[in-house]
Specification:
Length: 394
Amino acid sequence: MEKRRIYMDYSATTPVKKEVLDAMMPYLTDYFGNASSFHSFGREAKNALDKAREQVANLINAKPSEIYFTAGGSESDNWSLEGVAYSHKEKGNHIITSKIEHHAILHTCEYLEKHHGFEVTYLDVDSEGKISLEQLENAIKDSTILISIMFANNEIGTIQPIKEIGEIAKKHNILFHTDAVQAAGNIPIDIKELNIDLMSMSSHKIYGAKGVGALYIKTGTKLHNFVHGGAQEKRRRAGTENIPAIVGYGKAAEIAKDNMENHVTTLTRLRNKLIKGILDNIPYTTVNGSLEDRLPGNANFGFEFIEGEGILLMLDMLGIAASSGSACTSGSLDPSHVLMALGLPHEKAHGSLRLTVGDFTTEEDIDYIIENLPGVIERLRSMSPLYDKIKNQG
Ligand SMILES: *Cc1c(COP(=O)(O)O)cnc(C)c1O
């Protein structure tokens, strides 16, 4: 019998949907042209590129002319920060971000501080992972050129008050970038209702291929180029376009848009069932992140007295693929910067487990986890002297 495998790591990446692969396939074989070429092969590629741009624009209600394809979320984040920093350095050198951003933002900020004389304010978050609008407004100076706050967090799923942040940015005439890699395609976004100037997106978090993404650049936004070379993407992002991946991304965006309501309801229901099942069956357990403003597919638990790595290993033996924010795997003994920013004590942050559901998650998958996780946690805790003591105290 084939071993049961359950994928509960949709926030790390998603499988490519069959319709997406079907859309991509011809562009790896028959329609292989370079979109810049002046012949029928080139035109086929160019038409496909135009269509995908429309599909991605549609997902967020933007104009196709505001969508620029990149090699993924990381490039879109790097481009936004460096592009704005270099093009606005006459105006000022101050950037505001948060402590719980993805490393594609945080490490770029550190680079700008260290090598280019920029000053960065890293906003705190509350125990649910939300920034304070008051703290944001207080952090603004005459030299502030950019606010970059993520739409939704990849570890704990918390969704930020993006509309309000955009209003503050607009009031102070500061550009606003948001890393929407986890949000765009997973929750409805109407860019016209939000004061966003730049927004990063990625294909492989919404059932498209890896290595492709997009940057939304609002019409009229000034920023330096990041990848230099040919005249692709209206001379703003060089490099022969990865047509098959871009076509797949367009298809994935179209599917996400068409199924948004069902996607959100189904994932939220499965996620809530999982959270309830775990909290009901495992003592000394908390949920990290906000219960209201949360990505539909995200569940993040804190299990006291144990380490996330141990949980991952035992779950993997049961065929369950999950993730932990308590990565000793990265060579560091510290829990993730996101969990630390929530103000969790070390011992709580260490026993964290992220389970993310997606479009292929079934009711049976959730049942299997609710059935098996309590035993895993109990076995690990039985090796903890601290847990032993607390149990014996009754
Ligand atoms: C995955 C992710 C990224 C990086 O996107 P890639 O396409 O993998 O480069 C950036 N930000 C967030 C919030 C993410 O979840």
